[in-house]
Recover the amino acids of this structure.
């Protein structure tokens, strides 16, 4: 049972990373107020893009 759950983990992580990348890259503080908490959205987006590439390579 756990092996089936662990098989879903890379794709779930990749999906969450892609959602976070979209929020940081395409939206602004005027769209969503909580994005004002992020100091450097472009830098975080680039880092998450690298993480998504690694997650897609592993998965």
């Amino acid at each position: 049972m756990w092996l089936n759950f662990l098989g879903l983990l890379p794709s779930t992580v990749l999906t969450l990373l892609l959602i976070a990348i979209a929020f940081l890259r395409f939206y602004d503080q005027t769209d969503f107020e909580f994005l004002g908490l992020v100091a450097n959205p472009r830098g975080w987006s680039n880092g998450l893009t690298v993480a998504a590439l690694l997650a897609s390579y592993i998965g």
About this structure: The two ends are 19 Å apart (CA to CA). The mean pLDDT is 84.
